Each structure stands twice: as C-alpha cells, then as structure tokens.
Amino acid sequence: VILVPYRPEHVPKYHEWMQSVFLQEMTASEPLTIDQEYEMQKSWHMDENKCTFIILLKPDVDYELTNQEIKSAKMVGDINLFFNDHDSSSIAEIEIMIAGNNIFINF
C-alpha cells in the first residue's frame, strides 16, 4: 500500500464512501454534504492533534512509482492518527478504515 496525505483531490471518493450507512456507523460519522466534506478535509489538514492519510493500492511493480502513477493508484481507505495524550506526544490512537468492496491487501 501507499499512504498519502488526505488532499482535496481525494474528497469526492471519500465523500462517496461516507454515504454508506455501514461506514457511518462503524466510524461514528454523520452524513455530510460534499461542501462540508471539503471543509472537513481542510480542518483535518490544519489540526495539530490529528494526521489523516489516504490508503492507495500500490501496483505490483519493482520500480519507484512516479507521482502520476501514485495519483492514479486506487483509493481503498484511510488512516487517522489522533494525538490525544497530553502527557506524551509520542503516543497516538490509530484508526484504519478499508472502504472499498472486494479489497484484498497482502502485507
């Protein structure tokens, strides 16, 4: 897999995922409009207590991917890191969401 920062170009697919009642329930999320989703992406980007990454499927190749190849890789989920421990900046809660159907990831 490839992890990339959650950017505005990811919002339409992310918004599509989050229309799923199942994903809303599993992530304790409320349905948002696309405009609200763009605002949420901005706020997450600026939040010092949270890091959000999009999970992309890495093509099965033996060379370093170009930026264009990374941009065209399939989005399959996201990872959130929450730095909520005020006593230690090195401790974070992690949340991983695999959103697509029929996704198989080999580690």
Q: What distance lies between the first and last C-alpha atoms, to the nearest angstrom?
A: 8 Å
Number of strands: 4
Structural class: alpha+beta
Cα-based radius of gyration, to the nearest Å: 15 Å
Number of helices: 4
Instruction: Give the CA-based shape.
Output: globular
Tell me the helix content: 25-40%
Strand residue percentage: 15-25%
CATH superfamily: Gcn5-related N-acetyltransferase (GNAT)
Q: How many structural domains are formed by the residues?
A: 1
CATH architecture: 3-Layer(aba) Sandwich
Keywords: Acyltransferase, Transferase
InterPro entries: Acyl_CoA_acyltransferase (IPR016181), NAT9-like (IPR039135)
GO molecular function: N-acetyltransferase activity
